[in-house]
């Protein structure tokens, strides 16, 4: 019986992976399976891997090895981007039971059911479908990730995502709107649009900006957040839409480098001036708008002057958080063959400088918000504090007792920077 089977998950990498895992966990629970923490004994371990960097590969392999060692005879399923990139090697690895590529990930529940019924089964027998994941259970999170797009056609010189996620494909707009109606009816208070390159979204005549406009027009008490996006495929129409009360004033806008010469070597499709024009245009309308970003340090040939340009832009753009990557050689990419590979210690030193700028920007931004209020979506309540995120994607804590999945106005009164990551303190307004 399904109820007797214990299953454990481990998810690495991006929000898209997290969305897909959350949906699968919800479906397994509905089928009567017991989902246990990854460190506990289970009959089946599912590792949703990432392969975007060497570090991601290392973490994914480590989780696979842990699962194999944890319980003799357990079924170990590897899925995610590593399953696409290293499929043959993983299939030959002792202890790995199934390797499920990204476009068949939504069939994992059916695969598990067939396996536990003693059927001889192969992942290839299940249909390829990138979008038909089950709805995430409201008990799992307060916000619902909604996948609108998958794959990428950009072929940046350092990136293997087009190889492991495939070419860009968009989900029908009607399905997306129906998905959002159902998750908001189920009690989710925040919807997050996710995908690999969501600004390339297109369904017939509906582009990304049109889709956002249709979503914020839906009835219901929810707010909409846009996840990581590339600085292309949108413009003034999206800028204007941020005036809508449902659309949160935050973007994770991917920069990667503050040097035009590095951007050209990366095969990025914008200039620093164009990027900053977007930032300035949005801030001219919404002065407190929160921008976060990604920056890669140590790209092949990156000079001290080119790196200094990234530092300068990071300060000028006032990103409140910078996800910093050290350049990682990915076999099969153009950047792997480039001359001028940067020593690891230089990459590390440059990453440390960017993180220091990021922290200073974050604290400056927090200080600018003191004395103001945020509409906080509370996610958890501990013994001492209730914690959640404001509309500007600011982490906020209050000593007031607030139930999870509740929206409340909070007056920001202070900054707590004693832990690993600083957050804002406040009281109910």
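-> sequence recovered:
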């Amino acid at each position: 019986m399904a109820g007797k089977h214990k299953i454990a998950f481990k998810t690495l990498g991006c929000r898209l992976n997290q969305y897909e895992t959350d949906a699968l966990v919800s479906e397994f629970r509905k089928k009567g399976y017991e989902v246990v923490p990854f460190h506990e004994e289970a009959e089946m371990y599912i590792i949703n891997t990432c392969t975007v960097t060497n570090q991601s590969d290392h973490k994914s392999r480590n989780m696979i090895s842990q699962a194999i060692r944890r319980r003799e005879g357990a079924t170990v399923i590897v899925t995610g981007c590593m399953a696409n990139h290293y499929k043959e090697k993983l299939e030959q690895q002792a202890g790995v039971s199934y390797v499920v590529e990204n476009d068949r990930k939504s069939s994992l529940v059916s695969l598990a059911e067939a396996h536990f019924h003693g059927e001889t089964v192969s992942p290839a027998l299940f249909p390829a479908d990138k979008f038909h994941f089950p709805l995430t259970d409201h008990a799992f999170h307060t916000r619902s990730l909604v996948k609108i797009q998958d794959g990428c056609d950009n072929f940046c010189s350092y990136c293997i995502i087009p190889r492991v996620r495939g070419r860009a494909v968009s989900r029908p707009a009607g399905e997306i709107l129906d998905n959002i109606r159902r998750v908001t009816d189920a009690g989710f208070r925040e919807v997050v649009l996710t995908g690999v390159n969501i600004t390339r979204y297109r369904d017939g005549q509906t582009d990304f900006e049109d889709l956002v406009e249709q979503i914020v027009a839906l009835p219901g008490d929810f707010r909409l957040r846009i996840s990581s996006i590339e600085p292309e495929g949108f413009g003034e129409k999206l800028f204007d839409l941020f005036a809508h009360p449902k659309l949160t004033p935050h973007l994770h806008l991917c920069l990667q480098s503050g040097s035009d010469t590095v951007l050209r070597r990366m095969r990025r499709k914008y200039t620093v001036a164009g990027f900053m024009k977007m930032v300035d245009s949005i801030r001219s309308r919404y002065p407190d708008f929160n921008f976060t970003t990604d920056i890669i340090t140590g790209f092949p040939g990156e000079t001290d002057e080119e790196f200094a340009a990234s530092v300068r832009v990071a300060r000028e753009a006032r990103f409140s958080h910078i996800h910093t990557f050290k350049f990682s050689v990915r076999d099969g990419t153009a950047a792997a063959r480039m001359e001028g590979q940067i020593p690891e210690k230089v990459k590390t030193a440059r990453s440390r400088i960017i993180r220091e700028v990021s922290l200073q920007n974050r604290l400056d931004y927090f200080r600018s918000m003191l004395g103001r209020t945020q509409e906080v979506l509370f996610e958890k309540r501990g013994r001492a504090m209730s914690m959640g995120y404001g509309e500007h994607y600011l982490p906020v804590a209050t000593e007031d007792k607030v139930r999870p999945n509740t929206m409340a106005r909070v007056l920001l009164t202070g900054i707590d920077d004693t832990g690993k990551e600083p957050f804002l303190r406040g009281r109910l307004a």
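The mean pLDDT is 92.
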